[in-house]
Structures
1.
Amino acid sequence: MQDKEKNTMQIDHVNLTVRNVSEARAFLKKHFEYTDAFDDNNDNISVLADGHGMHINLMRGRKTAYPKAFHIGFDAKTEANVNAVYERLTGDGLTIAPPQHAWGSWTFHFTCPGADFMIEVACTAETETA
């Protein structure tokens, strides 16, 4: 394989085990613009598409323990975008700590409804922190 060909691969999907496939699927579709990749998505397995070639596979499982630092991240363009997502989520009833500056980002984390994995919404910080 030539070096040029080695760099053409990208992540296609992540497979996540969740307690409630329907709840996690509905949440990701509502708040992160995912769509059903297949017509036969169901309460045991669903494949979601983001419109950019990335898929999230949700599979029902009884034991859904993830390492403490494990999360999936969504990149926002600006701090205002991060704030808008935060306001939309909290307005929909989620209890989430407010965005903060961390590691050069403006970011917040929360647990995905119906699942035990964390979601991060972040952008590069627009202002420096002390």
2.
Amino acid sequence: MTGPGDRPVEAVVFDLGGVLIDWNPRYLYRRLFDGDVPAMEAFLREVCTPEWNARQDAGRPWAEAVAELSARHPEARDLIAAYDERWEEMLGGPIEGTVEVLRDLRAANVALYALSNWSAAKYAIARPRYPFLGWFRDVVISGEVGVIKPDPSIFRLMLARNRLDPARTAYVDDSDPNVRVAEGLGMIAIRFRSPGALRSDLARLGLLAADAGSTAPVRPAAGP
């Protein structure tokens, strides 16, 4: 984590998957492979790869993605289609400890934002399931803007769209490449490891009390 020096932190930008929301394709594919973990892992490594999924996060339509991959792997057509048709079954619950941190930041009038790699169509499905997504002043979704992290341009878009000063903005992500880009742009970069560690990091920035379950003194709301 990099610190802000004497300049107060005015906003916190959160990644979503792996930080606030538990998403994992294995929740679905363990069932589809009837517990055959090696076969499932081979499929997710060689067919429906993270790189393939990332193209949907960048805006490629799901119908196009499924058709193209099914043509290359006709033997796995149904399994490939399930990635789209049964995507909701990959969603776990909220990461409760981080949601509690988010709740405390909100109570302290810290300006909250989200920046996430996510298909626009799938985010629309997830949005109603997690009420805390309504706590953010703005949510930048890669599939809606056509560029994915760690491309610096999506970070710049978030900062510009919300008139955020990088030096006064903390950024929380579980991906090292994303954290490095945020740091390179002058943001206060926090590598997410656990809700408890995040609370400690934010306490060092003066945003929260260090003890779980307690809130920091109410701060004036940050800018618009």
3.
Amino acid sequence: MTKADLVERVAVEAELTKKDAEQLVEIVLDSIIHSLNEGEKIELRGFGSFRIRERNSRKGRNPKTGAAVDIPAKRVAYFKPGKELKELINNES
């Protein structure tokens, strides 16, 4: 599912115009991004949680040349599905 598909689905389900649905989806996604940037954890009950994980700097290799490369420390977004989501996915197979 793409962002456009999600906007279409929200528009149909909530009986909104595509423009209003797109704005709603943008607000939700921007809120998630802003909260993660602030270091907050986001929990959506029945769906899952978003968190930021810290990755330490490390040594890597350039696959083309084999030369050692320093990979800097960084923060990455991490999603952990909730129990209900896991059950729904596994029961519908």
